[in-house]
Write a structure and sequence with these properties.
This protein has 222 residues and is an alpha+beta fold. The chain folds into 2 domains: 62 residues, no CATH class; 152 residues, Rod shape-determining protein MreC, domain 1 (Thrombin, subunit H, Beta Barrel), CATH 2.40.10.340. α1 packs across α2. The radius of gyration is 29 Å and the shape is elongated.
């Protein structure tokens, strides 16, 4: 009897398909009688597609939960679109725009660190200029003393125009002090210190607690 079972099911499915396509009224009755135990190929395809969609959504939510555990009330969480294989550091496109309340000039943060600002906002996506763009500039302050300086973007962002009398040290935090972003949002830490080329100021390189190529979700502060 066990050997006949696959053949029996195969015959039933073939007959059911025949009645559905050529005699719809009888096919509908047969499906009702057989119930959900016999799954039609079309339903299987639909369920498989829905399953893949749910998996993708769960993966997206997992990234948001890991990288943006607490999105502030005045902020919008957004996914970063991949730019593989180029992985540009100077700009990125994110999955939130004007329809989500995002505007040009909004600050963009990753795990609380300021990584750039919105330069273009379409309905459901935005372009972000990061601190690794050579044209990016932002007034900043350094350390607990709050020494004024200017962050100049680039492949290796620098903190410039630091007063020669400023007593800064390696490891001092650099945070935003411009009107275009949240005050005191951290950018990085002082890595190296040297005299400026004009010898009138000091300048410093920065170290960052993240790698731009690994940023998959950001917080846009309105």
């Amino acid at each position: 009897m066990q050997l006949r079972t696959p053949w029996f099911l195969g015959i039933i499915i073939v007959l059911l398909l025949f009645f559905i396509f050529f005699m719809p009224s009888i096919g509908a009755r047969l499906r009702a009688l057989l119930g959900p135990e016999i799954m039609m190929p079309q339903n299987i395809t639909e369920l498989a597609a829905e399953n893949e969609s749910l998996k993708a959504r769960l993966a997206e939510l997992a990234v948001v939960a890991n990288e943006l555990p607490h999105v502030a009330p005045n902020a919008t969480g957004a996914m970063v679109y991949s730019s593989y294989p180029f992985n540009f550091k100077n700009e990125m496109t994110v999955s939130a725009g004007s329809a989500d309340g995002v505007s040009t000039g909004d600050a963009v943060l990753f795990e609380g660190n300021l990584v750039g600002t919105v330069t273009e906002a379409a309905a459901h996506r935005s372009l972000v200029q990061t601190i690794f763009d050579p044209n990016f500039k932002l007034p900043v302050r350094i350390g607990s003393a709050g020494y004024d300086a200017l962050l100049t973007g680039g492949a290796y962002p620098m903190v410039e125009s630091i007063a020669k009398t400023a007593k800064i040290s390696t490891g001092d935090i650099v945070y935003g002090a411009g009107s275009s972003g949240p005050y005191a949002a951290p950018l990085g830490e002082i890595a190296t210190i040297s005299p400026a080329p004009d010898n009138l100021f000091q300048e410093a390189s920065l170290s960052f607690p993240y790698d731009m190529s690994s940023v998959q979700a950001v917080e846009i502060v309105r």
